[in-house]
Specification:
The complex is a heterotrimer of chains A (269), B (376) and C (192). Chain A is α/β, with parallel strands linked by helices. Chain A has one domain: 3-Layer(aba) Sandwich (Rossmann fold), CATH 3.40.50. In chain A, the strands form two sheets. Chain A has an eight-stranded mixed beta sheet with strand order 2-1-3-4-8-7-10-9, with helices on both faces. In chain A, helix 3 crosses helix 4 and helix 4 crosses helix 5. By secondary structure, chain B is an alpha/beta fold. In chain B, helix 2 links the parallel strand 2 and strand 3. Chain C has a six-stranded mixed beta sheet, sandwiched between helices. In chain C, helix 1 crosses helix 4, helix 1 packs across helix 5 and helix 5 packs antiparallel against helix 6. Chain C is globular and about 55 Å long. Classes of the chains: A alpha/beta (269), B alpha/beta (376), C alpha/beta (192). Chains A and B meet through strand 2, helix 2, helix 4 and helix 11 of A and helix 3, helix 4 and strand 10 of B.
Chain lengths: 269, 376, 192
């Protein structure tokens, strides 16, 4: 499928991302998903935080809001409450979303506000040159963990689910068509949706951890991923070291912005 | 102006009611003493008029949500106090850079840190000016009464919209919590400026030619909003001449509308030997002294009260310095605005600070004693 | 009424003194006077010390804090001990004898009345002792027009309790004018 030129700010290209970075693949999947879902350009807003992947907002031809580090979901919450008819995609990196923005992440989930969080997880702080994030797996190296990090990583989707999110899916840059479908489903879901998109950072993460170049990293990503449907039939030993792919949960629950606006209409309409 | 029956109103309530009269329909906040009443009133009133109230998970999120709602086209306000004001600084800077209107209320309490949550202070004067990083412009109002709180909040909302510039309402615990008799104009009688609904075809979100209204998201104008230095369409640029021009433009906005922004009031002798420069609740003590000393005892004294403290009323201070021999600056801090006064007095008069920082108001007796000393 | 009146309402948190000060201030506004009301805030709102001040004047009120009280209400012993030394002769002092046992200096105008006990025994509601105290104060000082004050008490009472609060306010007048013994005798008669 040809990317819709209307949805890209082609004049702003080339992008700033490094060779082999997965951000472009995830961004393209997002654009195709928006098109596939049939949204009007004017009803879509892209919100992002600070970091490599958050720069995607500048390349997308919608109303785009590039916020402060970690706060994208809080900005998006204000905007969604003011304009519930808009559809918001919130692009964040793993550090942006789960470290500095962790509080807003769990509270957006708790409220079940209709925002679509696209978390580009490359397991590292890329823009600042390779520091470990809450999603860096234990033992992996970073400039701030030269001997490998001792810290444990979040399971982002378990965290989201525990906090009250009603849709959680995981895809990766090696399987862009599936990622696109997951984003489409997230967008159609009414409530707080999280799509974790695994994405390679060969420069700041892969090289230091001897994971090879972009091609090897994508290959590794694909090989270690198992679709949730297939995982259900596998035993624990076979699942060791694998990452679940697909829609991990989808729950019906009242959505905050529509509940709020219904409340003010009912009480004071 | 038609006035209705007088009512008893609290400062924080006047702030909330002023905001609502000025069209504020979105409030995001986090509970903190002594500003919580603003949130509680907004929580009760906004849903009744189709507005949005949301209690956020923290102070940072409250500031962010307010900016988000402003981009959606709502008039917005948030209220906090010292510790929360510290947390709001980064996103406040974002709103300045991205030129998103909003009003931030800081009901000052005794600091630093948690300090004395229920005690008044004026210790956030410099934080209000320089709290967020970088060379940014800022507008700060400091009311001295419940009614001033009401109308300055309206002015804050209107100026914020017009200039696309955050405005800070710097209250103190005394003004925020005291109740007094006020005449609130009838709804609709008060002048509330409306922002332009007409969008010119060549509209640019950050037009270099001058002020341009904010077109909210969702109306088919696809622009970018960022805290990075940006071009006329909002796209990031780090080009040195452009960066300098953009920063100049942010400051020039306030320069151009300086006379609408800087509000002061003078009472007393035309050529005072001793003048007082005061703001916030301290004005009340100073005014009670000056009224008696000038109107009753005919002493050569005067009071310049500052409703606007930033941008600093430099011209007014320069003019006062030409007339007065001594300028007393009473502040409930260790001396903050007095430095600015000295800068513009520039040796033309003797500047005398009067500081109190025990969590109590400066009393009229303290001021009149000092005046007496300098008069004799 | 003398030109400037400074009223201090003191006692323990939970006795409703802040609300009483707001009702007094609102009544004064309705009586066309200038008013400023302030209070001490904080965790002491329950159980600890509570102090609120009301200034009523025909002139504009600048400095908002009470410095020279013309009326002092003490609803517990601690507040009596704390604020009595701060008043000057001529100040009207009203103490709740339910909680304040003195010592009463003869040179000061001190009126000791069982405010809370009357609320409890006659109205069966200790919670309206604050409005009863306002009745006593106004009977002693005439700060605000009585009918305007009564109306304000009614209007500012929590929903459904307007009449009870007004009754307490009226009882305060009678307590001041007739004394507690008379009130008790009347109450005994009505119940018989």
């Amino acid at each position: 499928m040809q990317l819709t030129q209307d949805f890209l700010r082609t004049k702003k290209l080339p992008h700033i991302w490094c060779p082999g970075c997965g951000n472009g693949i995830v961004t393209a999947a997002l654009v195709r998903a928006i098109e596939r879902a049939g949204y009007d350009q004017r009803e879509v807003v892209i919100v992002s935080g600070i970091g490599c992947s958050s720069r995607a907002a500048g390349y997308l031809n919608f109303n785009t809001l590039h916020t402060t580090h970690g706060r994208a979901l809080a900005f998006a919450t204000g905007l969604k409450m003011a304009r519930p008819e808009l559809t918001l995609f919130v692009i964040m990196g793993d550090g942006d979303c789960s470290a500095i923005g962790g509080n807003h992440f769990i509270h957006s989930a708790r409220r079940n506000i209709d925002l679509n969080a696209i978390v580009v997880n490359n397991h590292i702080y890329g823009m600042t040159g390779g520091q470990h994030s809450p999603l860096t797996p234990t033992g992996m190296k970073a400039t701030t963990a030269p001997g490998g990090t001792l810290e444990r990583a979040f399971d982002l989707l378990e965290l989201a689910k525990g906090a009250g999110a009603t849709f959680g899916a995981r895809g990766n840059a090696a399987q862009p068509r599936q990622l696109e479908q997951l984003i489409t489903r997230a967008a159609k879901h009414k409530g707080f949706s999280v799509v974790e998109a695994l994405s390679p950072c060969p420069i700041a993460y892969g090289r230091r951890n001897k994971l090879g170049g972009a091609v090897e990293m994508l290959k590794g990503m694909k090989e270690s991923s198992v679709a949730v449907e297939r995982a259900a039939e596998m035993d624990e030993a076979d699942l060791e070291g694998k990452t679940l792919n697909g829609v991990l949960f989808s729950i019906d629950a009242p959505e905050f912005s529509s509940e709020y606006h219904r409340m003010i209409k009912k009480d004071h309409g | 102006m038609a006035e209705t029956k007088p009512v008893l109103m609290q400062g924080n309530e006047a702030c909330a009611m002023g905001a609502i009269s000025a069209g504020v329909r979105f409030y995001a906040g986090y509970p903190i003493t002594p500003s919580t009443e603003v949130a509680e009133i907004m929580a009760a009133k906004l849903p009744e008029i189709g507005g949005v109230f949301i209690q956020m998970e923290d102070e940072i999120a409250s500031m962010a949500a307010v900016i988000g709602a402003s981009i959606g086209g709502m008039r917005t306000l948030t209220a906090t106090s010292g510790p929360g004001f510290s947390l709001k600084q980064e996103n406040l800077g974002y709103a300045i850079m991205a030129e998103i209107p909003c009003v931030v209320v800081n009901v000052q309490r005794m600091g630093p840190s948690t300090g004395v949550p229920t005690a008044p202070a004026q210790g956030d004067v410099m934080q209000a000016r320089w709290g967020t990083h970088g060379d940014h412009p800022i507008i700060v109002f400091s009311p001295s009464s419940v009614y001033e709180t009401y109308y300055l909040t309206i002015a804050a909302v209107n100026l914020s919209q017009k200039l696309r510039q955050p405005v800070i309402m710097l209250l103190d615990e005394v003004i925020g919590h005291m109740r007094e008799k006020v005449f609130i104009p009838e709804a609709g009688k008060l002048l509330v400026e409306k922002s332009s609904d007409q969008i010119p075809s060549d509209w640019k979100p950050y037009d270099e030619k001058g002020l341009t209204p904010l077109v909210p998201f969702g109306f088919g104008h696809y622009y970018h909003v960022t805290g990075l230095f940006h071009d006329q369409y909002g796209f990031p640029t780090g080009d040195p001449p452009h960066v300098e021009r953009a920063l100049d433009r942010l400051h020039a906005k306030l320069e151009k509308y300086r006379d609408e922004i800087v509000l002061t009031n003078y009472i007393g002798h035309k050529e005072p030997r001793v003048a007082i420069v005061a703001y916030g609740c301290t004005v009340r003590s100073a005014r009670s002294v000056v009224k008696k000393a000038y109107w009753q005892d005919r002493l050569p004294v005067g009071l310049l009260s500052l409703q606007t403290i930033w941008p600093f009323p430099a011209r007014e201070i320069e003019a006062l310095a030409k007339q007065a021999d001594v300028i007393i600056v009473p502040e409930m801090n260790m001396g903050q605005l007095v430095g600015e006064v000295e800068r513009y007095v520039c040796g033309q008069a003797k500047v005398v600070p009067l500081n109190r920082y025990d969590g109590e108001m400066i009393t009229p007796d303290q001021i009149s004693e000092l005046i007496g000393r300098w008069l004799s | 009424m003398a030109k400037r009146q400074e009223i201090l309402l003191t006692g323990a948190g939970g006795q409703g003194l802040i609300l009483a000060s707001i009702v007094l201030a609102a009544a004064a506004v309705n009586d066309n006077k200038n008013v400023v009301q302030t209070q001490s805030y904080g965790p002491e709102a329950r159980g600890g010390a509570s102090m609120s001040g009301v200034i009523i004047d025909v002139d504009t009120i600048e400095y908002p804090k009470v410095t020279r009280p013309t009326v002092l209400l003490c609803m517990n012993q601690a507040s009596y001990n704390k604020y009595l030394p701060k008043v000057e002769p001529g100040c009207v002092i009203i103490t709740d004898s339910t909680f304040v046992s003195g010592p009463f200096k003869e040179e000061l105008q001190i009126k000791s009345l069982p405010i809370t006990r009357m609320a409890k025994e006659i109205l069966k509601r200790e919670v309206v002792a604050n409005m009863l105290a306002l009745g006593v104060i106004n009977a002693a000082t005439g700060l605000v027009d009585r009918n305007i004050f009564r109306e304000s008490v009614y209007n500012m009472a929590p929903k459904g309790s307007g009449e009870l609060n007004q009754e307490a306010f009226d009882l305060g007048y009678r307590l001041y004018e007739e004394g507690p013994e008379q009130l008790c005798r009347d109450a005994a008669q009505t119940s018989r």
